[in-house]
Protein 1
Amino acid sequence: MTTTPREGKTMRTAHVTQSPLRTTRRPTETRPVPGMPASEAAPPGVPVSTPGTSAPEAATHGPSAQSPPPESPPAPELVPAEGFRQAIAKLPTGVTVLTTVTGDSPVGCTANAVMSLSADTPSVLVSLGSHSRTLAAILDTGSFAVNTLSWSQRALTRKFASGSPAERFDGVPWQPERRIPVLSAAGVALVCEVGDTAALLDHTVVVGKVVWLRHTNEAPTVLYGREQYPLGA
């Protein structure tokens, strides 16, 4: 026998309301960097660098990061030395003999790179090869003389330029002034004390402060095109 529910009766169905699932998120763990105090450990959200891992590369600022340094400009192509000598010989210059002493012996050489520097502080500028024996004696003694050659003494130009250093004063009259040898036949003679010096390329420039002088009316000699010419008094 089948029993059916009576009419008018309603069956109650139980409804279960399901609460949403709550998840609890643990705070990010802060791990101190080895060797760093715990108080300086990275805060949450900041990557921690540990041995064996690479930290993100930092941006590099500055010109070196943008491009390599510019290359040095190429050295200029210089003219041949012999061509320069031929050209510069066309500039007329005076002819002088620079003299000084080494020990008790006089030494000297021919020089045409001599010019006045100042009249307010009477001084001259001379240039000699940095390996010159006469230059070494000038710097050691601290004094030297500039002797301009007269036309009558023009033969001394070659003697003091290419002759044996030990024989350059043989037969040449001179007298000491402030213990520096001065050529007796020099049209102009200046005794100088060494001032400033400067090594430039293969030469040394010396400033000479004039402390004694003598000048005559002897006709000086001028060097032009590797030949000597007299000038009127």
Note: The two ends are 167 Å apart (CA to CA).
Protein 2
Amino acid sequence: MTQQVEAAGLTVDELAARAGVTVRTVRFYSTRGLLPPPVIGPRRVGRYGPEHLSRLALIEELQHQGMTLAAIERYVRQLPDGLSADDLALHRALVAAWQPDTARRTTRAELQQRAGRALTEDDLDRLAAMEVLERTDDPDVFQADPALLHLGVRLLDVPIALRTVLAAREVVLTHTREAARELTRLFRDEVWEPYREGGPDPEQVETMKSLSAHMQPMVVQALVTAFQRSMREELRASFPAEEESRPASSAEEESRPASPAEEDGAPR
């Protein structure tokens, strides 16, 4: 039933419920050009798809960064045309690198409303394995990332065993930990230690603070870009026939947040 609804599209009310915003906010974003127009179905009813959900998640993340409506509009205008829901999710993940954590307390009822479907215990286990949510002592309360939830829900219908998801997670964790360890060592040995040996300097202190604050998002973007390229090369080598017929992803475009402007933000 869920797959049929996704194929047919969501009404504006369903889209708002899935995104965790009001219908008024959806319509406001549409009038400002932040959302593409819906597909007009029978009886002139607008239908929305996964790309609208992903775009709303991206807008929400930009708001969490403190960006004003004008800055968000500039950012969205710079995005390439025809981005898929997955491409938009990548942009959202890169933007989220500027925030320490986006998980928040969410009830089971809220999760199911955002998912647009009932979630079984097996579904919750799979979402936890994908790090979309974490269980708490209360079985009906979770720490969840709402912006990633709809992408995680889409993966629930992909025929991949839970053990495979867990194995993939372990591979990612192992190699990202090693990359983080080596990059931290380089920063410590090549940047931090020479700075300390130079003695206290107010200007250097501010420079180091700024560099430390910006290092994580820069490294995240570099890692994501490198991983995309490596993954594409591996897929081409392993599945040459399939890759030859697959269009290039527009997600390879680099995303850079615009500078905030002095203007009121959008309604919540």
Note: The beta strands are 39-40, 46-47, 104-107, 133-135, 141-144.
